Amino acid sequence: MPTRPRSRSGARRPSTPSPPSEAILDGAFHRASLVAPHGKTRAERNRLRAELKVVRSSATVVRHLRLETRPFLHPPLSDFERSLVASAFGPGTLGRALGRIERAEDRIRLLAKGAERETHHASGSESLATLVRAFYGRLSSFVREVDSDLAALRAIASFLRDRPHLEAQLPTVVVAGFPNVGKSSLVARLSSARPKVADYPFTTLAISVGHADLGFDRLQVVDTPGVLGRPGRANPAEVEATTTVRGAASVVVFVLDPTQASGHSLAEQESLLDRWRLEYPTLPILAVETKCDLLRTSSDRPKVSAVTGEGLDALRSALRSLLRPSSAPPPVNETSPETPERSTEVVGEAPSGERRGSRRPAGAGKPEGG
Ligand SMILES: Nc1nc2c(ncn2[C@@H]2O[C@H](COP(=O)(O)OP(=O)(O)OP(=O)(O)O)[C@@H](O)[C@H]2O)c(=O)[nH]1
Ligand SMILES: [Mg+2]
Fold first, then answer.
1. Which class does domain 172-358 fall in?
2. Chain CA centroid to CA 212, Å
3. What spacing in Å lies between the alpha carbon of 360 and ligand 2's midpoint?
4. Packing angle, helices 79-89 and 236-248, rounded to 10
5. Which of 102, 129, 274, 304 is deepest in the core (most CB within 10 A)?
6. How many Cβ atoms from other residues are within 10 Å of residue 67's Cβ?
7. Could you tell me the CA-to-CA distances from 34 to 20, 49, 272 in Å, in that order?
8. Would you list the domain boundaries of the chain?
9. Tens digit of pLDDT for each residue in 151-189?
């Protein structure tokens, strides 16, 4: 079995991953080495071999580069996915990497065309071999030049694989708030999602989605990492949560924990809520107090408990009235028609007749081109 290299002190060295270009070039040169040209004379076969090596190696490289860019282009990322990528990897990172790889493909095609032409004029096996060697050298440097872009694309692809794909046409409820307040517990109660629940902050580090049926339509319920609301000091999980609130929510359920078991005072949590209302004036934000099995305040906010299930029907009903298009018939399974309970905490409700989930919230910032 191969063993890892050891340093002089005998300790195992951590193996550094090989650059993406290495495997791409190895594969291309291997395929090119298998060419078996047919020709009447040896000179003819030599010339054809050189030509086929140029064609086959360049085509293999271009095909590999295409495979790396394909997940981002066919189908294209949604606006929300682009904004998630931009906030995690820096604005423009994805666009720059895709552009540079596309340019590398063009340069490789041109280079191959030129080398292929030259094989028609070269005479003698020695000069053909020199020509192919020179071509391989330039091909290698073109691919190596985009190594960092290929690595960036792979990191972004892996990031997106770990994130749910949100369906743009479905209404989306984003559950947000401070860390450890009970967001994931509530998402598990409201939807098919089963996120991890634990008594420490930042249990949730990435968004996840569950589905629910409000009687008239399917609904996406998104769990988010906690947000501490420290301006300019947000960690990546917090950035992901605010990007989701801004870019994917039809309605935000802002979870407040009045018990302070989360480690944060109610005033602290309310100040973030007030800030979001100012920042996203057209986004409906439904503030909900959770853990009402432990503490019930005198506020007029909806109260819920993810432990006993208390208040969940009223919460569903509030969401239904926020999300249901005014023209839609009442749900068939509803025994008594519910009067829309407008909480005093709900702001920026969608204009009547407009289904918020069918488009990006008007208050959402334009996603940064990734
Ligand atoms: N008594 C009671 N405990 C709750 C309730 N909701 C959540 N908890 C508890 O609060 C703790 C945090 O719950 P989570 O759902 O993980 O909280 P979170 O906001 O998702 O936490 P992060 O992902 O870390 O931000 C866990 O110990 C839960 O069991 C509730 O309604 N009542
Ligand atoms: Mg959580």
1. alpha beta
2. 22
3. 24
4. 160
5. 304
6. 10
7. 22, 10, 64
8. 20-161, 172-358
9. 999 999 999 999 999 998 899 999 999 999 999 999 999
Confidence of residue 4 (pLDDT cuts 50, 70, 90): very low
Distance 135 CA to ligand 2 centre (A): 54
From the CB of 269, is ligand 1 less than 6 Å away? no
What dotted CATH number matches 20-161? 1.20.120.1190
Q: Is the CB of residue 328 below 6 angstroms from any atom belonging to ligand 1?
A: no
Query: Which of 206, 288, 277, 274 minimizes the C-alpha distance to 240?
Result: 206
pLDDT in tens, 261-288: 999 999 999 999 999 999 999 999 999 9
Q: Indicate whether residue 183 lines ligand 1 (CB < 6 A).
A: yes
Q: How does residue 231 score in pLDDT terms, banded at 50, 70 and 90?
A: confident
Q: Is the pLDDT of residue 310 over 90?
A: yes
Asked if the model's pLDDT at residue 289 lies above 60, the reply is yes
CB count within 10 Å of CB 286 equals: 23
Give the ligand at the shortest distance from the Cα of 255.
Answer: 1
The Cα-based distances of 124 to 129, 135, 185, 271, 361 in angstroms read 9, 17, 75, 80, 68
With the most atoms of ligand 1 within 8 angstroms of its CB, the residue from 178, 197, 240, 295 to mutate is 197
| Distance from the alpha carbon of residue 34 to the mean position of ligand 2, in angstroms | 54
Q: Give strand pairing partners of 116.
A: none
Parallel/antiparallel/unpaired status of strands 218-223 and 172-177: parallel
CA 237 / ligand 2 centre spacing (Å): 11
pLDDT tens-place string over residues 97-116: 999 999 999 999 999 999 99
pTM: 0.82
